[in-house]
From TrEMBL, chain A:
This is MoaD/ThiS family protein.
UniProtKB/TrEMBL annotation, chain B:
Its cofactor is tungstopterin; [4Fe-4S] cluster. One of its GO terms (molecular function) is 4 iron, 4 sulfur cluster binding. PANTHER family: ALDEHYDE FERREDOXIN OXIDOREDUCTASE, TUNGSTEN-CONTAINING ALDEHYDE FERREDOXIN OXIDOREDUCTASE. The keyword Aminoacyl-tRNA synthetase does not apply. Residues 1-210 form the Aldehyde ferredoxin oxidoreductase N-terminal domain. This is Aldehyde ferredoxin oxidoreductase. It comes from Anaerolinea thermolimosa. SMART domains: AFOR_N. Keywords: 4Fe-4S, Iron, Iron-sulfur, Metal-binding, Oxidoreductase. Belongs to the AOR/FOR family. It holds the Pfam family AFOR_C. The keyword Iron applies. SUPFAM superfamilies: Aldehyde ferredoxin oxidoreductase, C-terminal domains, Aldehyde ferredoxin oxidoreductase, N-terminal domain.
Length: 127, 584
């Protein structure tokens, strides 16, 4: 088994054990060896579309509408943090931060090199 | 538009048309151009030859949304270089409605300890009257503002400085009224409050009654632009009603920066603070909900704002402690001092507002004092006491009021997070290297508002450079700084950048609004050129003031001390930093 130090912020805190919590929660989640990020979401009972900005050990792994981290393997002791969709992180304040390799590749391949706040045009348009 | 010059040496004033050279300048472009043209670069910032310049933006005072910003400029007592700081307030809109494109305060009275206010009304053109304001000095600002409203009526707007400006502190801001007539909206950075006080000026009171409003050259184009801007702000997830900023305020960034390992903690000794979730925007929103018994969304700092990101924080009895607890203040007085008591952070914000202190410089200074052992990290009561020392002007308070760099020097501290004498805001450059390049190179000293990302077209400036290489980051920083200088000239709040970056029609809307007001035909390229010209003007002033490229450097400890949790140093080479301005 591996042990994941999980941080859930804002509205997502309700997936941490107390369904009324809305500030933050820090559940310690046990997963079988070889689990990936999608397995952690499943264990929490949280749909991947409910999360926005995500970090694995302080490395950016997802942004709203851009989730290259679902198959990212987790290891014992990892710290994983999930943010709600009302969070934001303007480009100038994340320009040059560390990312997981999958995210770095996804950003470089995106048309705008990851300048935007969200990556799902349809959802953004609907507001 | 009019130019109003007020001479505090003999208390006279002149009203003229805006000179041709300044006709297509506003906001930061106006203040920086006047300072560069009229202030001797080597003058003492608190002497008679410095000038304090106020200018509304191009669209301030119109119905363009989120546009009531006023720029304040002068030579900074904190950096020794040129300074522009801006704030949102009805004061900015009133200045523009009275068709005052620029207000220049010059000279200095020969008598010390005598303070004056100016009351500007509309009498066919702006009319200035002086009143004795000495009785309002040395007091907390929340005691003073109601007296001014009582004296001049409820319709006025008020600009002032606090007691610490009267003491000449390098971290004293210029304060404006908010929508509730409270003294809470600060053009905070760089000590411009002390420049104002050095001229014996305590208040600038505006009464717009009868004023004609802003002239708009092409109303149809302006309306088109305004509508595009409104649509962008109302639909974007971050700026829309009940969106990120309206719900959680700017402090929504606390948890994000903390998880990224880029939240400067305990005087920039770590990038992660274990108490961050307790002081974050989510905690502010939920605490207020519990204490007031309902969800309270944020309010506007100034008329006509759609984003409405300002919070009010309440104590356990539901009584107001402070408005507003911004990300930067929350971090500076919280995480950076190792303090996770949100009530005490709010109390410190309130005290800074009362005494007239810049919250960022105050928090970073207290953290350096903590590093020196004056009080321990995490001691919120001790930190509150240090702010009182500053407000009361004790010898210790005066040292702290001189800012972070001076405090570090006095106590022999080597970890002093400043560039050009101004302390760094809440983004650790060892973790976020792009912002580090902007901190190092901006004309303002370390400044988080100097390089916003406003349009994807900016990527064109990089050519084939790798955006993750130091050279690529430098190219982007240069473009960010130029376009930000333009937004700072429009009168729009920088937060429109969030919406117009993602919604292209919003960006065009901003340009249409400005063209509509001025009758110009500026393009997106012209925006970049206009901003670049402002930067060149500022840079030239700084060089003549002795602040050249050697000052475009990070403090040494950031190049040698790895920052946990990522254990990185700031490793952008000097050549990349130099390229920001050499290739402008």
């Amino acid at each position: 088994m591996i042990h994941i130090d999980t941080w859930l912020y804002g509205e997502l805190a309700r997936y941490g054990g107390d369904k009324n919590e809305r500030v933050f929660a820090n559940p310690q989640v046990e997963l079988p060896d070889g689990s990936c990020l999608a397995d952690l979401l499943k264990a929490l009972g949280m749909d991947t579309n409910e999360r926005g900005i995500t970090f694995i050990n302080g490395n950016l792994s997802a942004m709203p509408g851009l989730q290259p981290d679902l198959n990212h393997p987790l290891k014992d002791g990892d710290r994983v943090a999930f943010f709600h969709l009302r969070s934001m992180w303007p480009f100038q304040y994340r320009h040059g931060v560390t990312m997981i390799p999958e995210m770095q590749q996804a950003m470089l391949q995106s048309e705008d090199l990851g300048l935007h706040h969200a990556y799902d045009a349809e959802e953004e348009g609907q507001g | 538009m009019y130019l109003v010059r007020v001479n505090m040496t003999d208390r006279t004033y002149q009203v003229t048309d805006i000179p041709e050279a300044y006709r297509h300048l506003a906001g930061r472009g106006f203040t920086s151009s006047v300072v560069a043209a009229e202030v001797p670069p080597l003058c003492h910032p608190l002497g008679p030859n410095n000038k304090l310049v106020f200018a509304p933006g191009f669209v301030t005072g119109t119905s363009a949304p989120t546009s009531a910003r006023c720029s304040v400029g002068g030579k900074s007592p904190l950096t020794g270089g040129i300074k522009e700081a801006n704030a949102g307030s009805s004061w900015a809109a009133d200045l523009a409605v009275m068709q005052i494109g620029g207000l220049i305060i010059e000279g200095k009275p020969s008598k010390k300890d005598e303070y004056w206010g100016i009351h500007i009304t509309w009498d066919g053109k702006p009319k200035v009257e002086f009143f004795d304001a000495t009785q309002y000095t040395g007091k907390q600002l929340s005691q003073v503002f109601p007296a001014i409203y009582e004296k001049f009526g409820e319709r006025i707007s008020v600009c002032s400085v606090g007691a610490v400006a009267e003491l000449g502190y390098s971290n004293a801001g210029v304060v404006f009224n908010d929508q509730e007539k409270r003294p809470t909206r600060y053009a905070g950075r760089g000590g411009l409050g002390s420049v104002m006080a050095s001229k014996g000026l305590k208040f600038v009171v505006l009464d717009r009654a009868g004023a004609p409003g802003v002239e708009i050259a092409d109303k149809a184009l302006f309306e088109e632009g305004r509508k595009k801007m409104i649509d962008a702000l109302r639909s974007h997830a971050i700026t829309k009603p009940k969106g990120g900023l309206n719900t959680y305020g700017t402090a929504v960034l606390i948890n994000i920066m903390n998880e990224a390992g880029g939240l400067p903690t305990r005087n920039f000794s770590s990038g992660r603070f274990e108490g961050a979730p307790k002081i974050a925007g989510e905690a502010i929103f939920e605490t207020v909900k519990t204490r007031k018994g309902k969800e309270i969304y944020n309010h506007a700092c100034s008329p006509g704002c759609i984003i409405q990101c300002s919070n009010t924080y309440y104590d356990e009895n539901g009584e107001e402690i402070a408005s507003c607890v911004e990300y930067e203040s929350d971090w500076a007085l919280g995480a950076n001092c190792g303090i996770d008591n949100l009530d005490d952070v709010a109390r410190m914000v309130k005290l800074c507002n009362e005494y007239g202190l810049d919250t960022i410089e105050t928090g970073t200074t207290i953290a350096v004092a903590m590093e020196a052992g004056v009080i321990p990290f995490g001691d919120s009561k001790g930190a509150i006491n240090l702010i009182h020392e500053m407000g009361k002007g004790t010898p210790l308070g005066r040292i702290l009021g001189a800012g972070t760099a001076t405090t570090g020097r006095v106590y022999g501290v080597t970890r002093v997070p400043v560039v050009k004498g101004q302390s760094m805001p809440a983004y650790e450059p060892r973790a976020v290297k792009g912002i580090g390049i902007t901190y190092a190179t901006t004309t303002m000293g370390a400044d988080h508002t100097a390089g916003y990302t406003i349009a994807p077209e900016i990527l064109g400036v990089m050519g084939k450079q790798d955006p993750l290489s130091p050279e690529g980051k430098a190219a982007l920083s240069r473009a960010f700084q130029a376009t930000t200088a333009f937004i700072d000239s429009t009168g729009h709040c920088l937060f429109i950048a969030f919406a117009i970056l993602d919604i292209a029609s919003g960006y065009q809307g901003m340009i249409d609004e400005v063209n509509g007001v001025l009758g110009t035909h500026w393009t997106a390229d012209d925006v970049l050129k206009h901003g670049a010209q402002i930067l060149k003007t500022e840079r030239k002033f700084n060089e003549a003031a002795g602040i050249g490229k050697e000052a475009d450097r990070m403090p040494e400890f950031m190049k040698t001390e790895p920052l946990p949790p990522h254990n990185q140093v700031f490793d952008v080479p000097d050549e990349a930093l130099d390229s920001v301005f050499s290739e402008l």
